[in-house]
Amino acid sequence: MTARIAIVTTVELAEPDMDEVLLLPLLPEAERVAWDDPNVDWSAYEVAVLRTTWNYTEHLPEFLAWADRVSAVTRLVNPLSVLTWNTDKRYLADLEARGLPVVPTVFVAPGESVPADALHGSVVVKPSVGAGSAGAALFHDDAAGALAHAQALHAADKTVMIQPYLEQVDTVGETAMAYLGGQFSHAARKAAILSKELSNSTGLYADEEISAYSPSVAERELADRAVATLTGVAYARVDLLPTDDGPVILELELAEPSLFLHVSEGAPERAAAAFRALLP
After folding, report:
1. Which of 4, 64, 99, 183 has the largest count of CB atoms under 10 Å?
2. Which ranges of the chain have pLDDT less than 50?
3. CB–CB of 186/171 below 8 Å?
4. Whole-model pTM above 0.90?
5. What is the rounded CA–CA span in Å between residue 119 and residue 125?
């Protein structure tokens, strides 16, 4: 069968990830294609579905220019307008403006001064464009260290985001809510990353401890609210952290999230059906 769907990856990830291993046998209409392979004829595909383009964070202008070109010759999913908004975590301010609870975040662009009061206590300092915890660092009562890390990110021309470290994640973990075709599919529980020694088996993202999880009513309600604000997306992942006042949104991942298909029976089939439904 001639491939009609491009499952978009990068030349840096030569082997399929777990999601792709489970998905591709169920989707014979599809094949893996690298966004950064200059020899690809994207017009040969009816749909291009972003999946493991995890190196885009270091090449964002080139990636968005590529997405613009591809959008002119085929259907790109999720669409360019979503990617432009979602590849920079300053979108969290938009979510907050929509009335959704998010992790409190201070954004500081290069050339701006870092507010001293944002560095008190336990804080996470990271770039606003990033994935897989790349560039993120945790500081406990170390304002000088946090400031130095922010300044290093600024020196690399990156906008800095500073968030309080919500320590319940150490005992409870992070919740990832996966949506396919606009519908809730399954949830996963992610163990804390920043408070532990990190491993990185691919060079593109930090390895994570993932397990199946049944979300609470409050988690499901919040994730549903977040996804209801979106249009034109074939997949989404809503990452939540626990607080004493209920869950808050850490990230709304719409560009290239792992969907953790292995944790839920039927999830690979649901993903295949959602992507097949994109065909004309």
Report:
1. 4
2. 195-206
3. no
4. yes
5. 9
With beta carbons less than 8 A apart as the criterion, state whether 268 and 261 touch: yes
In the structure encoding, which two tokens stand for residue 197, read together? 């020694």
- Write the secondary structure of the chain as one string of H (helix), E (strand) and C (coil): CCCCEEEEECCCCCCCCHHHHHHHHHCCCEEEEECCCCCCCHHHCCEEEECCCCCHHHCHHHHHHHHHHHHCCCEEECCHHHHHHHCCCCHHHHHHHCCCCECCCEEECCCCCCCHHHHCCEEEEEECCCCCCCCCEEEECCHHHHHHHHHHHHHCCCCEEEEECCHHHHCCCEEEEEEECCEEEEEEEECCCCCCCCCCCCCCCCCCCEEEECCCHHHHHHHHHHHHCCCCCCEEEEEEECCCCCCEEEEEECCCCCCCHHHCCCHHHHHHHHHHCCCC
CB distance 225 to 247 below 8 Å = no
Domains and CATH numbers, the chain: 5-86 (3.40.50.20), 106-165 (3.30.1490), 168-265+272-276 (3.30.470.20)
For residue 195, what pLDDT is reported? 44
Q: Residue 228: which residues within 8 A CB-CB, separation 6 or more?
A: none
Indicate left, alpha or beta for 166 from its phi (over 0: left) and psi (-120 to 50: alpha): beta
The one-letter amino acid code at 22 reads: L
pLDDT value of residue 130: 86
